[in-house]
Structures are given as structure tokens and as C-alpha cells.
């Protein structure tokens, strides 16, 4: 019988790092076939494109800074210690309209990689 993998403490210093957009960063804190937890940094004035996921639902939780999210046609502003659940199929876009870096966690189940449909 194969024993499960022993959990490892994860942080930005030990996680896989990647760059998205022109200046945004992400760190994979947890990755499995059914779960993704990523810490991200979005500098002022940067954003992602409007999109949705066909299978993945996501929860965005703000650590510092302020996130402006367009969810379908509604504008939502999230401050530190606030979060929002985005079900699969809901179009959304995250922006940093503030003057300081935005740091947040995004949890996706299943992982959103390869499940992103850019809005037209």
C-alpha cells in the first residue's frame, strides 16, 4: 500500500514562481488534480482580461491592497480580509486600480489552468 505524500510547509520562498501579464507574479502554494492555491501580486494599474472558466470555481481572498473586480456586469471592490466566490461560468476580471501592490490568494477547484475562456 502506497502511503500519501507527507505535507510540506509552503511559502512564497519555496513555491513555484511564475510571471503573468507584463509585471504580475504568482506562487503555486498547493497544486493537485482537484485543487490549486496561488498567491499573486498585481502592481498598480495592472489587470487580467475578462474571462470565465468552464469547470473551475474560484475564491479570491485579499491579503493587502484593494482589488477591483468586474463580475459579469457588476463592479465589486474588495479590501484586505475580504473575499469573493466566483462560480464556474461567471465572467470576471481582476484589476488593481489602487496605488499600492495588490496581494491576494486565489483558490480554484478544480485547478483553473487550461480552463480559461477569454471573453470576446
Describe this structure in words.
- With 120 residues, the chain is mainly beta.
- 0% of the residues lie in helices and 50% in strands.
- It contains no helices and 11 strands.
- The strands form 3 sheets. Strands 1-2-3-10-5-8 form a 6-stranded antiparallel β-sheet, with no helix packed on it.
- The chain is globular, with a radius of gyration of 15 Å.
- The relative contact order is 0.27.
Kindly summarize this structure in a few lines:
With about 120 residues, the protein is mainly β.
Q: Count all strands and give the number.
A: 11
> Class by helix and strand content?
mainly beta
Percent helix range = under 10%
Q: Give the rounded overall mean pLDDT.
A: 94
- The sequence of SSEs as H and E is EEEEEEEEEEE
Distance between the termini: 49 Å
Q: Rg to the nearest angstrom? A: 15 Å
Task: Indicate the low-confidence ranges by residue numbers.
Answer: none
Largest sheet: 6 strands, antiparallel
Note the total helix count: 0
Shape: globular
Q: Strand content of the residues, in percent?
A: over 45%
Spatially, the strands of the biggest sheet line up as 1-2-3-10-5-8
Amino acid at each position: 500500500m502506497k502511503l500519501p505524500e507527507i505535507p510540506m510547509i509552503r511559502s512564497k520562498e519555496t513555491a513555484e514562481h511564475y510571471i503573468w501579464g507584463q509585471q504580475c507574479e504568482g506562487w503555486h502554494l498547493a497544486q493537485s488534480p482537484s485543487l490549486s492555491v496561488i498567491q499573486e501580486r498585481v502592481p498598480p494599474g495592472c489587470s487580467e482580461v475578462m474571462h470565465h472558466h468552464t469547470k473551475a470555481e474560484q475564491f479570491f481572498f485579499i491579503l493587502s491592497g484593494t482589488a477591483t473586480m468586474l463580475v459579469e456586469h457588476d463592479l465589486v471592490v474588495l479590501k484586505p480580509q475580504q473575499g469573493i466566490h466566483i462560480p464556474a461560468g461567471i465572467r470576471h476580471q481582476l484589476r488593481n486600480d489602487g496605488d499600492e501592490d495588490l496581494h491576494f490568494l486565489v483558490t480554484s477547484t478544480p485547478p483553473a489552468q487550461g480552463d480559461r475562456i477569454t471573453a470576446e
